[in-house]
Fold this protein.
Amino acid sequence: MDKELREQIVHCEELAANAHVALNILQYDGWILHFSEGHTGRANSVSVLYPSHLDPDEKIDYCEKQYAAQNLPCVFKLTDGEEDLMDRLVKRGYTDITPSSVMRAEARNIKMPEGDIVLSDLPTEEWLEPYFAFEGFDERHQGIYRRMLDKLCLKAVYAAVKEQGEVVAVASAVEDNGQMLIQNVIVDAAHRGEGYGRAVCTALLAKAAEDGIHTCFLQVLQRNTVARSLYESLGFQHVYNYCYMKKE
């Protein structure tokens, strides 16, 4: 793999992990094991980012034991360039789930869209309550997510779009070292297809430009063709793929 692309993958995966902070982590020979009581794949999987020295099969055994001890399935998050490890996992009965794409756009000359848009540097209840409702989080997952937010160290932005006083779309982002990761983009099911997803994403891109951010990233499921088309229309282009590997 091209060295520049590999460096960008590592940087972006670090940004994603720092943006969605696991409750606990365990570092093991270049791999990072994330544990968050089962809330989301990113915060409950093994990241394979850095050079390692131990036998891969020995390491897989170790990870499986650690997740079993937490009563969690062992899940590996693999990016482009990890084909050898993917083959080893497939032989052990793992399958590729939720294949996703990381996309990038330049944040320049973008104006704040019209409409009732609220930006905050804290996750207010006005943002959290509709986010939980749109995602369908029960009380347990709401509690886990709040604890994860408490661990966030990076500068964050929380965006909400309102229509007639009601929040109809939300998204958030984190900033670090001149770059932004946009995440948690979701629109109320009753208002999808009405342009609110574009509005909330554009608001964060405009905020990035205002803050001097030069590059924005986001992650999207490959099967979500509607979201991918939206992001492409906003100037985002594919950078690399990742997937989660989990035993059937």
